[in-house]
């Protein structure tokens, strides 16, 4: 998350092949965005000369990181773009945002505070958010699209259950979405791990920092990351794995936390696991409980962009296929468009919907043709966006393990 | 009846400087250049606008001239200059007694210097070696040879001056040991041209002895080849000089998006010997390491070489004339009537890019005196070009900021017509050369320019193909635009091969690391997809 980049590995490694721009979901639908190569490595050479790009261009990047997955030279293009955004924000020049958008980004970056606020009286929050007049006002005052699928709030996740005491321990990093919007899924993750004999430790983590970073609050993002690292450090030192069920939190822990100058940074990268990556390793070691009941369901699967960036394939697809009765197909239809809070913004909503269109169509077609009944994906943002775009119910894959284990 | 009062031979900085000065004083003049303007030494150098500090110890006259001209050019040629400032850094290897001499020399030449605390130096230039002892700031700057030469040419044109590129002088006409005309060949169509004049100015730089020979005059110019490296990125924000006796590879100049490191110094037989070599590149990297550790891991996009025309007769270091660095960098105006008994011709030799204007002034003073013209020189006061603010605003509206500013700096007032085209057809605002941000409309405008005859001419005027990819993508993209001006660029396949080979000339000495990967990609495009080696299209 420390965005100071290595100009040899990044700037010098780019051979201008344009593969990133060819596969960028935003550039494909938005002619005003010249693509990651242009605003990344191309513009960076000019930025080193002190010439800034149009900030609006930088803000079109949705931080999906498809470019980084695509780049044959290993250039961290998105990090370069975010770094440029950070410097643009720090510089005396205007960052090109209106006061309204600045306030909106201030709010959207703070998923944690929103979560705390929203979960004080979740039903009240949800009722208010569902009033269309309210959404019109929010669009006008905050610049939040009235059509955007804002996630509903539920009672805040508090780890509960049997509190298994075990010498096998893991740390669970639920992330804001599970914590404030989807506590039941967080609870399901805990249950599955406990069912496999693990004691699940859930310190009172803060937001991972990705939403802050994506909305331009870089130093706040780093502060959060350092606070979280401090909470994890004793466990990391003891060699405990850190499990994430949100693919964006997972990516931040794996790729950005190790770059922080803070205790624990040297461990976090290699000790962080996506839930299904962890379970699959248990399976490979013969340590996974595989007393599955049959779950007769056919699923369409969407791989979140930040899961792809982790470079671990699609472990949930492999694992769910171990469950008798489960049929699952990876739709491989690109980004859902939402990218965290990008698609909530009024000026980005249409772009997000256009980006996700091939996916929504693929989902609708699959259901219409009877190839699958419902959708599954790890990322909470993808879940709400796919439901919004296609009308098909979308859940976290852990729920099929819950049914298979009959928990 | 004469065609022009003066014919200038040589379209480098000095030649165009003279053309402008003469034209401003109302003297009719024609400049003849065998290639494109600024194709020679005037673009094959560091791009350093000297403060004079480099010459403070050994060459005080050059030092004084440089600082005076430095301040004048920053005023009159601002769009061509990036006022980066410069540092002289003393490493642990460098002799402290030289430093004391240097401080005195700078004071004598009135070059303002001030010492920079090391903590501040490392903060401002984080890549600087930790083996630095002292750092001094001087008023060095980066100057763009292409832009400055073209800005002079355009200004001269506004004052009625004429120039012809791709015209090679073949002989002179005489009348009673007086040069009365110039016979030149148009290299594009082979036509011969005879121009009668009162005075010929030989400003041919490294080719000056060849031109003097047409007048039966011998003139010794030492061809001192200097090789330089262009790095893919700005490594430093200011010019970095080693604080020691001037030597090889001891200057880094941040130039636009790149950094130039140089130079070597080697006496060669002919100005055409300007091919950079791999050994020279390696040598420069090894020396540069002392200022920027691990320099070899930074990507070098190309090497290039220029030939400094040094004038031996100026050397005040006896017996040292064979060593290029030992020859004075001041210039000399050679009145061939006094020197050789041939009237109607004057040669201007030696000197530096930084002092081109002063050289032009001295020549023009001499010419004016001969012609009885009493108009004073105004080139130290009058700006080369001024682009109205409205053009800047329009550019920022139509193009990404980096592209907008760069284009205006390159094209000056011509930027307006490019912007008008983009306004008519927004698609032409797209970047044709993405590395250096050159729009389709800009390339189209320059391609159709009457002074443009080759892709390389477009490159010199726009930076097309000079960035990271070294022409891999922009070259084939530019071809359809050349097709529009078909007659001029025929056969287009030859134009393509020529350009790719010119790029290759600078790439092959630095063919390692990331630039090797880039070159493989380029090879895949041109040798494989476009089958360039098989489709010569003769």
UniProtKB/TrEMBL annotation, chain A:
Pfam family, one: CCG
Domain of life: Bacteria
Keywords of this entry: 4Fe-4S, Iron, Iron-sulfur, Metal-binding, Repeat
Domain 4Fe-4S ferredoxin-type: residue ranges: 4-34
Gene3D superfamilies: Alpha-helical ferredoxin
4Fe-4S keyword on record: yes
Entries under InterPro entries matching the protein: 4Fe4S_Fe-S-bd (IPR017896), 4Fe4S_Fe_S_CS (IPR017900), Cys_rich_dom (IPR004017), G3P_DH_GlpC_su (IPR017753), Helical_ferredxn (IPR009051)
A GO term, aspect molecular function: oxidoreductase activity
Record bears the keyword Lipoprotein: no
GO BP terms: anaerobic respiration
NCBIfam families on file: glycerol3P_GlpC, PRK11168.1
Protein's UniProt name: Anaerobic glycerol-3-phosphate dehydrogenase subunit C
TrEMBL record, chain B:
Pfam family, one: DAO
Keywords for this protein: FAD, Flavoprotein, Oxidoreductase
Protein origin, superkingdom: Bacteria
GO CC annotation terms, alphabetical: glycerol-3-phosphate dehydrogenase (FAD) complex; plasma membrane
Entry keyword annotation includes Zinc-finger: no
Gene Ontology biological process terms from the UniProt entry: glycerol catabolic process; glycerol-3-phosphate catabolic process
Gene Ontology molecular functions: flavin adenine dinucleotide binding; FMN binding; glycerol-3-phosphate dehydrogenase (quinone) activity
Essential cofactor(s): FAD
Keyword NAD on entry: no
Domain (FAD dependent oxidoreductase) ranges: 6-354
EC number(s) given by UniProt: 1.1.5.3
Family per similarity comment: Belongs to the FAD-dependent glycerol-3-phosphate dehydrogenase family.
Protein name: Anaerobic glycerol-3-phosphate dehydrogenase subunit A
């Amino acid at each position: 998350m420390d965005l100071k980049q290595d100009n040899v590995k990044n700037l010098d490694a780019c051979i201008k092949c344009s593969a990133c721009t060819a596969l960028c979901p935003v550039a494909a639908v938005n002619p005003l965005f010249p693509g990651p190569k242009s605003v990344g490595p191309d513009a960076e050479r000019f930025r080193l000369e002190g010439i800034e790009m149009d900030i609006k261009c930088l803000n079109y990047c949705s931080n999906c990181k498809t470019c980084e997955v695509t780049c044959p030279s290993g250039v961290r293009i998105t990090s370069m773009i975010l770094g440029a955004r950070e410097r643009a924000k720090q510089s005396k020049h205007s960052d090109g945002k209106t006061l309204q958008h600045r306030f909106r980004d201030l709010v959207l970056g703070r998923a944690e505070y929103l979560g705390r606020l929203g979960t004080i009286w979740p039903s009240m929050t949800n009722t208010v958010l569902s009033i269309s007049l309210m959404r019109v006002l929010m669009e006008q005052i905050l610049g939040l699209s009235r059509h955007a699928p804002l996630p509903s709030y539920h009672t805040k996740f508090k780890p509960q259950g049997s509190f298994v005491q075990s010498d096998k321990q893991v740390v669970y990093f639920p992330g804001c979405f599970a914590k404030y919007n989807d506590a039941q899924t967080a609870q399901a993750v805990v249950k599955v791990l406990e069912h496999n004999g693990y004691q699940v430790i859930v310190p009172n983590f803060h937001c991972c920092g990705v939403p802050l970073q994506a909305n331009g609050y870089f130093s706040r993002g780093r502060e959060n990351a350092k606070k979280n690292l401090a909470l994890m450090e004793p466990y990391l030192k003891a060699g405990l794995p850190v499990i994430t069920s949100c693919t964006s939190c997972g990516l931040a822990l794996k790729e950005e936390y190790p770059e922080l100058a803070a205790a624990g940074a040297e461990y976090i990268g290699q000790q962080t696991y996506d839930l299904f990556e962890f379970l699959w390793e248990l399976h490979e070691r013969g340590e996974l409980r595989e007393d599955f009941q049959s779950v007769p369901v056919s699923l369409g699967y969407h791989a979140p962009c930040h899961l792809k960036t982790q470079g671990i394939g699609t472990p949930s697809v492999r694992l769910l296929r171990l469950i008798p009765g489960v049929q699952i197909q990876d739709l491989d239809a690109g980004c859902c468009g939402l990218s965290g809070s990008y698609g909530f913004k009024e000026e980005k909503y249409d772009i997000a919907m256009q980006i996700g269109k091939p996916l929504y169509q693929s989902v609708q077609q699959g259901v219409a043709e009877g190839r699958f009944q419902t959708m599954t994906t790890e990322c909470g943002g993808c879940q709400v966006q796919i439901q919004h775009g296609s009308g098909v119910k979308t859940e976290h894959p852990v729920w099929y393990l819950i049914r298979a284990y009959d928990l | 009846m004469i065609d022009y009062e003066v014919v200038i031979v040589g379209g480098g900085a000095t030649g165009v400087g003279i053309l402008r000065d003469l034209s401003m004083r109302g003297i009719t003049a024609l400049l003849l250049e065998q290639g494109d303007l600024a194709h020679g030494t005037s673009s094959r150098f560091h791009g350093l606008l000297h403060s004079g500090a480099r010459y403070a110890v050994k060459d005080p006259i050059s030092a004084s001239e440089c600082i005076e001209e430095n301040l004048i050019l920053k005023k009159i040629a601002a769009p061509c200059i990036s006022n980066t400032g410069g540092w002289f850094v003393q490493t642990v290897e460098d002799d402290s007694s030289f430093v004391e001499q240097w401080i005195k020399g700078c004071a004598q030449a009135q070059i303002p210097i001030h010492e920079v605390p090391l903590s501040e130096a490392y903060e401002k230039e984080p890549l600087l070696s930790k083996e630095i002892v002292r750092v001094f700031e001087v008023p060095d700057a980066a100057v763009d040879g292409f832009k400055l030469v073209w800005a002079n040419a355009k200004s001269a044109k506004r004052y009625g001056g004429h120039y012809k590129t791709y015209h090679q002088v073949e002989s002179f006409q005489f009348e009673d040991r007086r040069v009365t005309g110039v016979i030149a060949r148009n290299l594009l169509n082979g036509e011969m041209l005879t121009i009668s004049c009162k005075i010929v100015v030989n400003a041919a730089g490294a080719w000056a002895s060849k031109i003097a020979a047409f007048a039966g005059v011998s003139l010794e110019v030492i061809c001192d080849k200097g090789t330089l490296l262009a790095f893919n990125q700005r490594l430093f924000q200011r010019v970095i000089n080693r604080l020691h006796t001037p030597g090889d590879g001891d200057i880094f100049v941040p130039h636009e998006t790149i950094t130039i490191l140089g130079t070597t110094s080697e006496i060669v037989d002919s100005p055409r010997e300007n091919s950079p070599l791999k050994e020279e590149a390696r040598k420069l990297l090894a020396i540069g390491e002392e200022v920027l550790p691990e320099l070899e891991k930074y990507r070098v996009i190309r090497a290039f070489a220029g030939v400094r025309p040094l004038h031996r007769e100026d050397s005040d270091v006896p017996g040292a004339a064979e060593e290029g660095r030992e020859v004075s960098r001041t210039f000399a105006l050679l009145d061939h009537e006094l020197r050789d008994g041939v009237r109607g011709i004057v040669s201007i030799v030696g000197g530096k890019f930084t002092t081109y204007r002063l050289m032009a002034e001295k020549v023009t003073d001499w010419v004016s005196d001969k012609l009885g013209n009493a108009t004073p020189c105004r080139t130290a006061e009058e700006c080369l070009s001024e682009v109205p603010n409205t053009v800047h605003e329009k550019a920022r509206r139509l193009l990404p900021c980096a592209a907008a500013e760069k284009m205006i700096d390159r094209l000056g007032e011509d930027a307006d017509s490019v912007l008008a085209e983009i306004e008519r057809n927004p698609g032409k605002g797209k970047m044709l050369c993405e590395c250096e941000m050159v729009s389709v409309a800009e390339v189209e405008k320059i391609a159709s320019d009457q002074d443009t005859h080759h892709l390389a001419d477009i490159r010199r005027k726009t930076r097309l193909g000079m960035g990271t990819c070294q022409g891999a993508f922009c070259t084939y993209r530019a071809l359809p635009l050349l097709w529009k001006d078909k007659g001029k660029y025929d056969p287009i396949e030859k134009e393509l091969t020529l350009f790719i080979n010119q790029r290759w000339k600078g790439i092959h000495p630095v063919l390692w690391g990331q630039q090797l990967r880039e070159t493989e990609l380029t090879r895949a495009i041109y040798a494989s997809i476009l089958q360039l080696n098989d489709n010569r299209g003769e």
